Amino acid sequence: MFSVLLELPEFEVVNQEIFSTHYLVHVEKKMDEERCPHCGFHTRIVHDSRTRKIRDLSVLNKPLFLLVYVKRYRCQNCEEVFSSSFESVASHQRYTNRFRQFIYEQVLGTTIQDISRKYQIAYSTVERIFYSVAYEKAKDHQAVIQEIQDDQDITLSLDEIAVRKGHKYETVLYNANLGAVMGMHKNRDFDSTFKLLSLKVIHPDKVKNVVVDMWDPFHKAIRKAFPNAQIIVDKYHVVQKVTQALDQVRKKIPGLKKSRFVLLKSYENVKEKDREKLNELLETHESLAYGYFLKELFRDFYKSHDYETANQLLKEWLHLAWSSPFSSFHEVAKTIENWRIQILQYFKTPFTNGRTEGTNHKIKNIKRRAYGYRNLHRFRTRVFLECTGKTYEKWVS
User: Fold this and answer.
1) Mind telling me which residue stretches traverse the membrane in this protein (predicted)?
2) Phi-psi category of 304—alpha, beta or left, where left has phi over 0 and alpha has psi -120 to 50?
3) Are 145 and 182 in contact (CB under 8 A)?
């Protein structure tokens, strides 16, 4: 006869039943003595008993249910009546701990609907199991991140992500050293950003650097929360402004719609077959060649090996940008002058938002999988877990 190997040491198998749709295993706890949760005394006096049907991991692709014989004890010391407790089944749960963990791990990386269909479990049940485990995991993750903050200097990264149409944003706070999400908060204004920084950073004096774009409310919140931290404007956002200025020059020249990507690429990354086309465009359109020269020259600025060289090259580039006939480059030059100190700080503390942008892409995929989230608290919990899991495992091990 087929026998199910349970691998739950606290239980003794009394009987097994095999059905066409599932397995049913009758079990009871091996220990016949319980500790009273009210006064701490041990007792063997059984008041009454009942059975609980518990879902466990499937066996050979068929659901396995445990029919648990649950004794209720009466304490001889305080006369209270209580039920026996189990290591493998939480109180008031109809699923083993390992089954809850299994469902949680299955949902990560996909949707609740998908797992509900795959294992033929009600959507609401999968949802309840997943988020009950998720909130427990989130507390553990948060505790580890706070412990890490106690031991080392912190470099933060701040960015926003659109969660709905109509300029609905979430501000996302990252630990740049760990490459992990620390928290999220609605909107991207000064008040919400300051609140996020205050809640998630327990040692403000340990924050040495913050990498951010050129959104002014972020900078004001950072200066208030961490007055001694160095603010670094992310170089990719600055380069993006310059390439957008070149694109504005291209748009004013008719017939260059299909040339956009070859112009915005760095020259060394242009494929050999496209390089001839690029050179022809630059020879034909003098204004375009000027804009392209400014774009490539700005990229050379970021290749500087020290602060003084970078400062000198930026001065020269700003002079050329202001001297150009292009209003788009004038606007960029004005923006760079306003943020000059923070842009040049990169050459003293060379941190970027590169890992942050990669995490942003992952967050967008989480949102797309579920076609958006009505409950932002659940969305934030899921982002926190899926974007800090490896960090948590590394530090716990």
Assistant:
1) none
2) beta
3) yes
